[in-house]
Amino acid sequence: MLSTDRYFDPDPKQKSAAMELYAGIKDLPIVSPHGHVDPALFASPERRFGSPVDLLIRPDHYVLRMLYSQGIPYEQLLAPEDARETWRLFAANFHLFNGTPSGIWLAHELETVFGVTQKLSQTSADLVYDQIEDALKGEAGSPRALFERFNIEILATTDAAYDPLEQHQALRTSGWKGRVVPTFRPDDVVKIEAPGWREAIRKLSAASKIDIGSYADYIRALEQRREFFKSMGATAIDCGVFSPATAELSTQTAEAIFQRARQGKATAEDAASFTAHMLMEMARMSAEDGLVMQIHPGAYRSHNPQVLERYGPERGFDIPVRTEFTHNLHPLLERFGNHPNFSLILFTLDESTYGRELAPLAGAYPAVKLGPPWWFNDSWNGMKRYFDQVMETAGIYNTAGFNDDTRAFASIPARHDVWRRASANWLAGMLVRGFIDREDAEKMAAEMAVGLARKAYHF
Amino acid sequence: MLSTDRYFDPDPKQKSAAMELYAGIKDLPIVSPHGHVDPALFASPERRFGSPVDLLIRPDHYVLRMLYSQGIPYEQLLAPEDARETWRLFAANFHLFNGTPSGIWLAHELETVFGVTQKLSQTSADLVYDQIEDALKGEAGSPRALFERFNIEILATTDAAYDPLEQHQALRTSGWKGRVVPTFRPDDVVKIEAPGWREAIRKLSAASKIDIGSYADYIRALEQRREFFKSMGATAIDCGVFSPATAELSTQTAEAIFQRARQGKATAEDAASFTAHMLMEMARMSAEDGLVMQIHPGAYRSHNPQVLERYGPERGFDIPVRTEFTHNLHPLLERFGNHPNFSLILFTLDESTYGRELAPLAGAYPAVKLGPPWWFNDSWNGMKRYFDQVMETAGIYNTAGFNDDTRAFASIPARHDVWRRASANWLAGMLVRGFIDREDAEKMAAEMAVGLARKAYHF
Amino acid sequence: MLSTDRYFDPDPKQKSAAMELYAGIKDLPIVSPHGHVDPALFASPERRFGSPVDLLIRPDHYVLRMLYSQGIPYEQLLAPEDARETWRLFAANFHLFNGTPSGIWLAHELETVFGVTQKLSQTSADLVYDQIEDALKGEAGSPRALFERFNIEILATTDAAYDPLEQHQALRTSGWKGRVVPTFRPDDVVKIEAPGWREAIRKLSAASKIDIGSYADYIRALEQRREFFKSMGATAIDCGVFSPATAELSTQTAEAIFQRARQGKATAEDAASFTAHMLMEMARMSAEDGLVMQIHPGAYRSHNPQVLERYGPERGFDIPVRTEFTHNLHPLLERFGNHPNFSLILFTLDESTYGRELAPLAGAYPAVKLGPPWWFNDSWNGMKRYFDQVMETAGIYNTAGFNDDTRAFASIPARHDVWRRASANWLAGMLVRGFIDREDAEKMAAEMAVGLARKAYHF
Predict the structure, then answer these.
(1) What is the pLDDT of residues A399-435, one digit of tens each?
(2) How far apart are CA B143 and CA B149, in angstroms?
(3) Per the CB 3.0–4.6 Å rule, which of A1, A217, B317, C333 could disulfide with A212?
(4) Which residues in chain B come in under a pLDDT of 70?
(5) What is the rounded distance in angstroms from the CA atom of residue A329 to the CA atom of residue B78?
(6) Hey, is the C-beta of A360 within 8 angstroms of any chain B C-beta?
(7) What residue spans of C115-244 are helical by DSSP H?
(8) Average pLDDT of the segment spanning A126-152
């Protein structure tokens, strides 16, 4: 059973202050401005999640990679035919998640979403499986029902630049009131070095109805798609890049690289220049159309080629690398950092940049906000480090509140709960130490829970 | 109202130990061995601070950049004609500083220096303004009176190599007892890549009465100026460099670079070599004349060119970069690291170097001490990280106590108070955990408050 | 006197939980899978430690460098003729170790091994010296007696590839039951840039009885030595490298570099390539013979050439550098990261890699485990940072338990005690916050104390 005072520091004064602050924010709606939930889940009221394994294991690379790291073959985890066997394997190894965010999220989901109060283990595996399976079958277990029960005010998905947004369209025309908006993600059409780039450009041509033969066509197509996303409710774009290097190319150079890419002759250097240039272009477009720009840099994707080849990407082998922002973002900020219509939200997997680079940038440039602790750092201790390393320099008002950034829809309340508890605990710590007073602490708690995200993402 | 137990950890045992340790050090005099206070403040007893905005906002780039980061234009902050309007803007936005060191320092200053006990806000803005304005008018609000009231034992300023130190001279001859000493800062005359370098050399020629036509003249002039600073009470020099790279050039190479610089033809590579070489030269001179050498590396200065052009430097856009010490300092330490007359105090904006590079260097080389948490890290949590990451490896005796490093004179007691409370809290944490006993904790507290700074700076 | 609740967090709930968890593990045997104790200590029952200075000061570079950093000349510390004078100097400066791991280990050793309950100081110096000297003379103070009293289940030493392991042999044939096993460390024969490399190759030829004239001979000799080490009980190898770069050379290139090295003509680039290649080769051999592979990278060895020249290596001047794992290990993990017979334990001196690179790698690759906090980070706060930065991503089961990594034999119980207390304290913190339950906490405590080390090192 989850205790009501869970996670909070044990000191009685701090804990009681934390519980009071938490009580004031726990029932606020969920604002989810960045994530990877499939919009198709909500396109029709008939949609269901499938088996407990379809819901909780297969789409969750945090869970998969932990099991794989202990020698459990991906075959046994991804084999579609025997969900219950996979569940048993997972349950028998649930101790691997002790002390990890996945462990906490899962316990929270099981209890609050599915009413499971036993600890998951080899013994309880079947019972728990049945309980979840039952819950998922009924209408109360449908994606739309959970969306409403979770009190989600707005949920942003992440969608390729060429995505026709049919699911979003279906959802809108269905008359359902849930607010689900797309986010424009141009990665596929920017990564000229990727094997699928030319196919992505063909899709972009098709989606934009612009026959993309030149760099100028390409830019026009992107501008047009951004307009379309905006018309579908998008307020933001997202750039997933290896490096946050930014640099402006001349139109001629950009065109030359673009043509080499079309012929499959772009070099690695071309690719790096083009990505750096396209971050500048995305910033320029954002300064024009007002879409908030996000940058998620610093992951070495699919580090394990054997796993990539056999099981595809997103199997837990995206490994962070050292990331540099001060030099890399200089060209972009030189041009757009003071622009009144431009807003840039930065993320990092390299915590050494929190205090050294990101908080000073966010604490000075009007265009820059710092996104919440991301991915490996989206955890109780990751949040503590973020608060301690970022807030003294940037203040909370230069941060962007919380993102759950998940494709595991049922874990969304659990993730926001950890953030709200962590915020309340941090603010309580400052309150009992006399850094802030109660009035400030209460306002800050509400800002961190929903206000900052609403403002940063223009909701 | 400030509570007497503020900042300390809430655990009752640790808090009471911290309060006892703090009680033993809170009234010790202030030793301020590095900072940027204007010596002219003390040159005559008639000198006053000006308006509350002149004192608390305009010279404080921590405050300015936070307001600017939230979209408040610099025009409104720096416009000299309407101080009260600027103050109101500041007061209405004071929540931006919640949980930041500036917020804490300002609250402390307002209450202890100016007797303001209300919280600053839009509502209280005018009342507080009047109260400060009144306090600043009388003799009790004069710089000299505050210096005495603050119980400052010694205050070191930072002065260009060519500075005639007239204010220091006036202060000395005035018969006032306050001890204010200069620090020799050669940056302007070393940065051959800066537009103002040739002008700086002309000033150095004038100050030293040496017509500087060659590298040898230049070195002689620097040696002579150091001698002069020493005669004026200086015990230290300070080098603010982008990188702490050190490397010795041959005299011929140094001369050749120097001549290229005089002709405005020095390359970026020349500049980097020359800076690295001049760190070696400064160390050599320090080993000879005994002036303690400080290095403050790692800031990308004036990262925002639009702000630089319109509002000048020191507007909050100096952004830290990753810094490397182990390789960079090797040439210097190879030559001077064991020298009995050489003392080097290192600072960093890159906390990842605390435990990895700086504590191991300070914990081994007799010449090396580690300076206190600097700038963005001069904060409650910054101090905690410093204690936790540095002290186990270096021990406290290889550190240099505290620097306030400020140009905001009235904030000096507030800054030292945070350090003393943080030290007491940290030592109390070790005491209640049995890492040290009370006798050690009391000695260490006094060392950290004043003893280490006196020793490290040869006061 | 050591208090029984020492080090634990002061909050009463957390402390009592920590003490209960600690009570369950404090008497478990010591598993010491990596360290530098001299096996000769145990080869014969007559062996004694020598003077207190021989035992506690001279072999301990942590102690030596701290004294040297405060201006105490190495002459006075290493002079063999007057042990008592050296001891007095140490005692008079024992305050330098306040709050450091050395201070804690020494206090623990003095009290639990030698019955010294006074605080070491100038005053108590002689008395303490006499007490230790007495204890060391008798049979109860012999290495073997202490091994048994320390309840050491297994102790691994570190031995050069060409070491004939005579001491290990003597120990085995003596009939003594203490389990002491070697570890294969090929550094000397891999570092083609080191002055002693050719001599090391001669020794390798002699030990392997293979006349090493070619790269192929060299590889055969290494394989043969690994076999021999294995036959002597070794379960692991250890690679101490500057960089963890890995890259496979063609046999021809490896041969060419090897021949250049034999002629003393290898370049720095050759050396780097060869080291990177040999890490791949060691991994290949480990995948074949099953010896666990350890990598200890990132120390700039003998940073102080004056000290190196006069007093030799290991005098406290090995200074860490920034280290990169994600790119550097990619070639090795691409090939062996999924291999069922390969096991790699990674260490770092660069804590910024804990959460960014190492925990994600260990939390995904089945072959990778993360070693405990190493060297400068083997401390109370170092352990806290390790737990907080590693465990949420990797889980405890992808870590390798504890290593004491010491040559100071008498400090082994003290070091394991700090780890066990730190583990208990960390688990208690999670327990009282509701992250884990008591059953899990107890299991995890036992795993961290001994279970994980036994598994990771194939004991």
Answers:
(1) 999 999 999 999 999 999 999 999 999 999 999 999 9
(2) 10
(3) A217
(4) none
(5) 27
(6) yes
(7) 125-137, 143-149, 166-173, 187-190, 197-208, 215-231
(8) 96
